[in-house]
Amino acid sequence: MSTNAYLSFLAIGIALVLVDGQIIYRSGRRYLANAYGDPGAGASMTRLVTVLFHLGTLGILALISTVDIGGSDLPGVVGRVGVLLLILALAHAATLGALARIRGEQDVADAIAHRDERLARRSETDLQAPTVTPVPGQEGRHPDVSPSLEQRSPYTA
Length: 157
Hints:
Protein name: Integral membrane protein
Transmembrane segments: 6-25, 46-65, 77-99
Number of strands: 0
Structural class: mainly alpha
Helix content: over 70%
Radius of gyration: 30 Å
Keywords: Membrane, Transmembrane, Transmembrane helix
Region (Disordered): 119-157
Number of helices: 4
Distance between the termini: 79 Å
């Protein structure tokens, strides 16, 4: 492969990686903006994931550039770009999975916090009420099991 073909493959590859990285960063920043309640925290997490994407895909680009694909200059460049596009698609999917996992973990943390707030707001009378309706003649929060119909005795396990 000639120097011109090699440099054009690197230029095309770097442009593809940078464009895809910017798409991930801009979309991911909006996706995680409300996840942490602070847009700065979401942008920071997105930046970290995007830097990992850029480093990984630029490293793969460097490795692909050394592999001999195709015979002449044009088929070699097209073959390398094709392989790069497939790898970019996999890296893009993995990055979206990472962003979704980050947001999912934050959603779970928010749900737990809201549940704790709801439990704290409940009144003491709600917490002292019986769990189930007691059988007639039994008092208390945790009544005994009612007798079976056949033997008029408590159930056995």
